[in-house]
Amino acid sequence: MDKSTVCAIVVTYNRKELLLECLDALLRQTRPLQGIYLIDNASTDGTPELLLEKGYITELPPKELNEPWEKEFAIQNLTDG
């Protein structure tokens, strides 16, 4: 039996509707998901707020990512929880 899993990295910028389609497709695929990592390249179209509203993320990222440790927040495992 094949026990391989999938891990996806999705990069987005101001394409929230397309992003939702992409995330939904990833969640519907047949291989087990190890994780989905999302990198939002400072979208200004409400992408983070929509992801929060739809339950894909649990908190909004900081507005300013100035400290090195904060940059890790930009990549969030969407399959946690």
In a nutshell, what does this entry contain?
This protein is of the alpha+beta class and 81 residues long. The chain contains two helices and three strands; from the N terminus they run βαβαβ. 25% of the residues lie in helices and 22% in strands.
Written overview of the protein:
The chain contains two helices and three strands, in the order E-H-E-H-E. It has one domain (6-77). The chain has helices at residues 16-28, 47-53, and strands spanning 6-12, 33-40, 75-77. It has 81 residues and is α+β, with helices and mostly antiparallel strands. Helix 1 (16-28) links the parallel strand 1 and strand 2 (33-40). The protein is elongated. Strands 1-2-3 form a three-stranded mixed beta sheet, with helices on one face. It comes from Caldicellulosiruptor owensensis. This is Glycosyltransferase.
Question: What key attributes describe this structure?
Answer:
81 residues; alpha+beta; three-stranded mixed β-sheet; 2 helices; elongated; disordered C terminus; Glyco_trans_2-like
